[in-house]
């Protein structure tokens, strides 16, 4: 079974049971997450080696590693150097962790920091700030590589903080920069957020260009709300697929794309 080829095999549900297309990584993640939450892999138990999982699931090592990273973000597993990946919780997933911070902590801080930052930036930004943001936005809209896009995403928010002309704001964003990047990658891998985020970013830049403090705050608030909604959807997704059945060690494949 090769997930990237979107083949069908084993005891796989009909295509109609899949409301949307998923990537090979997400299919592997869904399978492993359900296996953990349903007790197939108990808390304290070590998952099979990467080589063994790749063999059983017929996926590449990069695809598997992305899924394993997502499991850690969700707080279900932990990687121990030289020993492997161990189950540390059977779920349910409630609050993913990005580096040193949970998603809920990040969102709370971002609402209290980035909303006023957007408002201040609208009235304090310079022509150079607008040029930088516009150029960055254009690059993001053309970018197809997730890693490069994520790097520009965090730079975008840092640039807005710089435009607010208060070094403390930029310092706060710099402090959570790594967590923001991890969250951005997570949302792109599992929430297909890139195109929508680009539109939200463009609305923010347009409000800054107009010099409208209320519009800038509203655009940033909408952006953060969409982040929160996508995170909630990803967290809930595992429970929505509990009634699906697949053959042993074979995640759902119908309707997948790499």
From TrEMBL:
SMART domains, A to Z: FCD (SM00895), HTH_GNTR (SM00345)
Sorted UniProt keywords: DNA-binding, Transcription, Transcription regulation
Domain HTH gntR-type: 22-90
Pfam families: FCD, GntR
Record has Transcription as a keyword: yes
InterPro entries named among the record's database cross-references: GntR_C, TF_FadR/GntR_C, Tscrpt_reg_HTH_GntR, WH-like_DNA-bd_sf, WH_DNA-bd_sf
Region feature Disordered, mapped onto this chain: 235-258
UniProt xrefs under PANTHER family: TRANSCRIPTIONAL REGULATOR, GNTR FAMILY, UXU OPERON TRANSCRIPTIONAL REGULATOR
Protein name (record): FadR/GntR family transcriptional regulator
Phylogenetic classification of the source organism: Bacteria, Bacillati, Actinomycetota, Actinomycetes, Kitasatosporales
């Amino acid at each position: 079974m090769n997930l990237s080829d979107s083949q069908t095999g084993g005891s796989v549900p009909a295509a109609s049971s899949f409301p949307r297309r998923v990537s090979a990584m997400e299919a592997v993640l869904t399978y492993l997450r359900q296996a953990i939450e349903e007790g197939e892999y108990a808390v304290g138990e070590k998952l099979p080696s990467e080589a063994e999982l790749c063999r059983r699931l017929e996926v590449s090592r990069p695809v598997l590693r992305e899924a394993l990273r997502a499991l850690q973000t969700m707080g279900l597993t932990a990687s121990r150097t030289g020993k492997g990946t161990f189950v540390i919780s059977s779920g349910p997933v409630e609050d993913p962790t990005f580096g040193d911070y949970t998603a809920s902590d990040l969102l709370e801080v971002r609402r209290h920091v980035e909303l006023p930052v957007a408002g201040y930036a609208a009235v304090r930004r310079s022509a150079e700030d607008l040029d930088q943001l516009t150029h960055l936005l254009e690059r993001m809209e053309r970018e197809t590589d997730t890693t490069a896009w994520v790097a520009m995403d965090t730079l975008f928010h840092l640039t807005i903080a710089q435009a607010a002309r208060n070094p403390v704001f930029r310092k706060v964003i710099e402090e959570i920069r790594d967590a923001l990047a991890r969250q951005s990658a997570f949302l792109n891998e599992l929430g297909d957020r890139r195109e929508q985020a680009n539109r939200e970013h463009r609305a923010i830049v347009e409000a800054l260009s107009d010099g409208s403090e209320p519009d800038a705050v509203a655009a940033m608030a909408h952006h953060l709300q969409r982040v929160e909604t996508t995170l909630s959807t990803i967290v809930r997704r595992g429970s929505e697929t509990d009634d699906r059945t697949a053959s042993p060690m074979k995640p759902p494949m119908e309707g997948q794309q790499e």
